[in-house]
């Protein structure tokens, strides 16, 4: 996997950002991806979709995406332009939806790294070397490497394109 | 190996498995509903644009479908989702489609046991996070998203990282007014809402042995709220008797080996347990009901896969019999069959005499979808499983989670009430 991602950070420094705030229940009947993006993170910051530019990152606390299995959650976030989410831990269904659907990358970083990154910082993420460079602060952080199967699915661009 | 490891070993054709191994497991049953179904169909239509058409489902007889989240149709879009779902099941030959207003139907996690859709020893996946519920039948049951369910429909298998198992031994006599809901809230309060992330939660101990099938299902239902991959209980005579009443299907029950290894073991004593409530905005934010007494409420909700099974309704009705509710109270049985049984037992009459309204089975307001959502500032006590901001309606509404008896007692006073304190 030879890939470097560049983008700006949108930081929401709290744990347990759940699927009900990422995409509230009434929108579950919507299956148009562009329409879902308009409501991404509505329960936390209704202005979020306007703030994001394609390729940006979301940095958050532990257990990101807990709650429901709604694939609407990674779809809505990725459709705003978010390319990766950086958090200490992810809820399991959110994690596999993000990877298997090929929507965005769930990247595990430690809690100290979350503290060091500020809102609006510019980052460069090198997937091959598992490093994150903070361009704004001129710092470098480690990220947890993807497990073998996950790395292959990420590289394939989702579970459907992956061949065991 | 634990029961979870043994089921996954069998399904992936291996003799031995350890936590952390990644396997492709054959799936025995898969479920879709009116939210995840159209999501899965959308995945197929996206793939079709890229030249991968779904010609046929790997095994239509292993697929079942229910309409539960937005029925009765909340609006035009939800009506059209049900049409999309019906066209799909017709096109691909899925016969087990439980339709609203056409005989038996209800919440997916209730039909899975009420209709014996899933059997001990099976690998069961569903397009819903509370699929964990059905693990109380001795199955490996886990929730998946749309892409993963689409993959299962095409290939009949899916990858899993074999989870470590946390064993919860629930011991001792269970006082009156303590229900499985109190036990699981207490556990989530202790380990936290990510305390079981990626792991299996297995329940055992003499108190679990004595629990009915429906009460066991409340335990596994809320393992999702601790982040667990699956919740599971080894099948026993209670499981087999429950199934005998519902199916002739054959199955091979699985139990863990003597000497199976558990990542952690917890012992929970029920003898001095208090009726428990999870405060806004987390199922792990627990207090004893008595510590919250006096908290003013606008509404009581008895519904959902967690808290509207037949025994939940019986427990609530016992408290409400001959008394009047002080706040708006809604009762939504979890399935048509449960609604019918409740009616024959006189429970529906008790609820309606008390002033409560009894509605049709639906996920409804539990997920803030429709049928009684909360307005700004409203406070609700509910038998459901989640109380995140905006879960049941407005982002500034509040939901307290509790057992059916605590919700019923609170409905009668208009304040959070421990049933022991009712006059």
Describe this structure in words.
Chain A is an alpha/beta fold. Chain A has a single domain, classed as Aconitase, domain 4 (Alpha-Beta Barrel), CATH 3.20.19.10. Chain A has seven helices and seven strands, in the order βαααβαβαβαβββα. Chain A has helices spanning 19-22, 33-37, 48-51, 72-80, 92-100, 111-116, 148-156; strands spanning 4-12, 57-60, 84-87, 105-108, 122-126, 131-134, 139-142. Chain A has a seven-stranded mixed sheet. The longest helix of chain A is centred in the middle third of the chain and has 9 residues, at 72-80. Chain A is globular. Chain B is of the alpha/beta class and 423 residues long. Chain B starts with a helix and ends in a 10-residue tail after the last helix. In chain B, helix 6 links the parallel strand 8 and strand 9. The A-B interface holds A 15-16, 18, 20-21, 24-26, 28-31, 43, 62-63, 66-72, 74, 89, 91-93, 96-97, 100-102, 147-149, 158-160, 164 and B 22, 24, 35-36, 38-39, 42-43, 47, 52, 69-70, 74-75, 77-78, 81, 127-129, 131, 143-148, 150-151, 159, 161, 193-194, 197-198, 227, 229, 282, 367-370, 373, 386, 388-391, 395.
Q: Main beta sheet of chain A: strand number and arrangement? A: 7 strands, mixed
Pair with the biggest interface: A-B, 39 and 49 residues
Average pLDDT rating of chain B: 97
| Mean residue pLDDT of chain A | 95
Percent of residues in beta strands of chain B:
15-25%
Oligomer: heterodimer
- Taking pLDDT < 50 over at least 5 consecutive residues as the criterion, the unreliable ranges of chain B are none
Strand order of the largest sheet of chain B: 4-3-2-5-6
What is the gist of this entry?
Chain A is α/β, with parallel strands linked by helices and 164 residues long.
Structure characteristics:
heterodimer; A: 164 residues; alpha/beta; Aconitase, domain 4; seven-stranded mixed sheet; 21% strand; B: 423 residues; five-stranded parallel sheet; 14 helices; 18 strands
Lay out the secondary structure.
The complex is a heterodimer of chains A (164) and B (423).
Chain A: E1 4-12, H1 19-22, H2 33-37, H3 48-51, E2 57-60, H4 72-80, E3 84-87, H5 92-100, E4 105-108, H6 111-116, E5 122-126, E6 131-134, E7 139-142, H7 148-156
Parallel strand pairs in A: 1-2, 2-3, 3-4
Antiparallel strand pairs in A: 1-5, 5-6, 6-7
Chain B: H1 3-11, E1 22-26, E2 29-33, H2 36-49, E3 63-66, H3 76-92, E4 96-98, H4 108-114, E5 123-126, E6 140-143, H5 146-155, E7 157-161, E8 165-171, H6 180-191, E9 200-204, H7 206-210, H8 213-221, E10 230-232, H9 237-244, E11 264-269, E12 276-278, E13 286-288, E14 299-302, H10 304-307, H11 310-320, E15 328-331, H12 336-344, H13 347-353, E16 357-358, E17 379-382, E18 398-401, H14 404-413
Parallel strand pairs in B: 2-3, 2-5, 3-4, 5-6, 8-9, 8-11, 9-10, 14-15, 14-17, 15-16, 17-18
Antiparallel strand pairs in B: 1-7, 12-13
Helix pairs in contact in B: 2-5, 6-8, 11-13, 11-14
